[in-house]
Amino acid sequence: MRLVDDEIEEVRLRLNVDVTVTPDSPPAPAPIESFTDMCLNSSIMKDIAIHEYTTPTSIQAQAMPVALSGRDLLGCAETGSGKTAAFTIPMIQHCIAQSPVRRGDGPLALVLAPTRELAQQIEKEVKAFSQSLESFKTAIVVGGTNISDQRSELRAGVEIVVATPGRFIDHLQQGNTSLTRISYVVLDEADRMLDMGFEPQIRELCSRGTLLCVNVYGRCELPILYHKHASLIEKVN
After folding, report:
1. What fold, for 5-236?
2. Motif Q motif in this chain: where (predicted)?
3. What's the predicted TM-score (pTM) here?
4. Residue range 59-68: mean pLDDT, rounded
5. What percent of the chain has pLDDT over 70?
6. Average of pLDDT values for 94-106?
7. Which of 178, 124, 170, 166 is nearest to 148 (CA)?
8. At what angle do helices 42-50 and 83-96 cross, to 10 degrees?
9. Helix (H, G, I), strand (E, B) or coil at 154
10. Domain ranges across the chain
């Protein structure tokens, strides 16, 4: 059922969601009240049920429809709010809607995180919501692990890469992967990556012009990340 404007604002008020849309942009998509509102792939819905997700959290309710609409998003939410699933579930849905990944292809989606530990947590969640999908592959690319194994996995072709910026840039420079097929990018805890000195790497990735969806959780004032699609960025608190 399509919500009218007053109903949309009522739902946002109940969810305690604040949405700011950049000037001259169309209104943000309406929040969802159930995962069934998203028309997700049946395998993803199966995995959502397996993990006993019943009702979307506030950040999920608004961020998911924005992410699936292909619009850029700057989202701010506290730890424990379900923010990882808010970008993970639509990312998986986006990937399975693309043509299959072949050997030598770069990934369809990229998640950057500031630390190996956070990247591992994100990878675990990606795999949790894609476990029922056949031949769906996720690679984790971080320091402290065997780079040759990562090279082989990337060259074989994967749908999603979860990485720390430095190690991912290393693989790009070595020709082990590319950005040519990426159409969904997540910068998780981008404020921490900037604080840790990853600004050059983030700028390099943003300058490739392949960013379609940007989800950032942390501080909400990050002008460095506003790229050529800045007019579509939506801020969700």
Report:
1. Rossmann fold (3.40.50)
2. 33-61
3. 0.86
4. 90
5. 85
6. 94
7. 170
8. 150
9. helix
10. 5-236
